[in-house]
């Protein structure tokens, strides 16, 4: 059983809070965090959703991608690398018909364009994956996370 009490604010921790508001009589929700930027979440059409937002598990992969992307860009900027385009593709594998169905394998493909040194790109991604990305740390206990990258000049 889950404890329904709010998390106590403790000074030695950074606190984060989001609010989820139901938009319709089905599965469409609007989520708001401290940024004030709304994100829409919805269920699949086959369960009664309206396809009006990302699925919750998609949002987890989006969070992982965003977390690592910010790390990598910051590291590459400090190394004076010129980034002209930056994209990530994340593939997540979940057990079929399992309940719950957490991700078991995740592969991130970093697609970069610019005047970039491949060794510096690899080092930036390694630092993100092994040291800085909090989303990666959340997934590590249950999922094998791998990556690859491509640089186009």
From TrEMBL:
PANTHER family: PROTEIN YHFA (PTHR34352:SF1). SUPFAM superfamilies: OsmC-like. Pfam families: OsmC. This is Putative redox protein. The lineage of its organism: Bacteria, Pseudomonadati, Bacteroidota, Cytophagia, Cytophagales. InterPro entries: KH_dom-like_a/b, OsmC/Ohr_fam, OsmC/Ohrsf.
């Amino acid at each position: 059983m889950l404890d329904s009490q709010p998390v106590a604010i403790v000074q030695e921790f950074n606190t984060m809070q989001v609010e989820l508001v139901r938009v319709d009589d089905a599965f469409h929700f609007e989520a708001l965090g401290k940024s004030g930027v709304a994100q829409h979440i919805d269920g699949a059409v086959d369960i009664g959703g309206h396809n009006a937002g990302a699925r919750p598990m998609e949002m987890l992969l989006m969070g992982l991608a965003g977390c690592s992307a910010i790390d990598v860009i910051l590291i590459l900027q400090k190394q004076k690398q010129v980034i002209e385009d930056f994209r990530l593709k994340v593939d997540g594998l979940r057990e079929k018909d399992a309940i719950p169905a957490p991700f078991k394998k995740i592969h991130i493909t970093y697609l970069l364009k610019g005047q970039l040194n491949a060794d510096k790109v690899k080092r930036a991604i390694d630092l993100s994956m092994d040291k800085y990305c909090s989303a990666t740390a959340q997934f590590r206990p249950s999922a094998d996370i791998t990556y690859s990258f491509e640089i186009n000049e």
